[in-house]
Amino acid sequence: MSKAKRYTPTNNPSISYTKGTLLHLFLVPLFLSVVLALFNTNIKAFLLNGVSFLLFFLAARVAQKGFIQEGKYLQNTFTKAPKVPYKMFGAYLLSAATFFTAFIAGEQTFMKSAFLALIAIVGYYLFYGFDPKKDKLENLGDISAEFVLKTINEAKTKLSHVENDMEKIKDTRLYEKLNIAVSKAEKILQTIQEDPKDIRVARKFLIVYIDGIAKVTNAYTDMEESEINTQTKKKLHKLMDDVEERFDKELSRLKRNNQFDLDVHIDVLKEQIKN
Amino acid sequence: MIQYFKGVLMLTPSYKKALGFIFLLFSAGFAVWYPLANLL
Predict the structure, then answer these.
(1) Phi and psi angles of residue A16, each rounded to the nearest 5 degrees, phi first
(2) Fewer CB atoms < 10 Å away: N or C end of chain B?
(3) Is the Cβ–Cβ distance between A145 and A79 less than 8 Å?
């Protein structure tokens, strides 16, 4: 069997997970001091430096969670602000870690340690900023933003299930077809996110089609691929062709809808200018 | 003083970042060396 791995490019822009590296760099001298204290069998220093290390480590981890959360918020055009302000917690933890390390583990004066802790929190705020607070939910008239968000998130979850199931599929033709369908579905979701009023038009797509694909791929992967007969496979290939066609139609319908919105706005402005 | 901080907060993002980086490096980045210095 070939050892070649399947190339699966991601359609979404990647979130930078490298943000927060600086906070991890602060761990290096603390790690060295823990090791040195251990070599010197200085138990007190070992324990205090160990606590310092853990505090800085915790601050870096919490902050990183906040950065990932922020990345997802920035990536989505229609979303709520993060519920838990991890970036802010990270800042407080960093400040506490700085104070503890300078005052207790480093045996510096109270004033000096407090000053360093204060500067650390100001520096963190200026360099990383705090968590986003504003919900990216525009006024949608008669549809509730919560409902739109819930529907979109459910559709995204189902799509990620499909993507997970796809990894188990060995039939390359079917895999390709599913890959095309998923990327088109993601494009449709993105279009809906950009103009959430479209949810009225695309409700059937969100509820029926994505769910249907998820069920089919799940049922397919539950079986041994060799057990599935050629006729069923052919039927499945044909179905995926139909799905692709349907998704294309859905996408053009959404685009037409946007075109219609634009026409309405143009007509309204035209009338206003006339009067 | 308040005016100064207001000025800092209204700096353009890149200046803000650079200042934040320096602040972080010379506070938390400084404090982490104290325990090691005590042992040497």
Answers:
(1) -75, 115
(2) N
(3) no
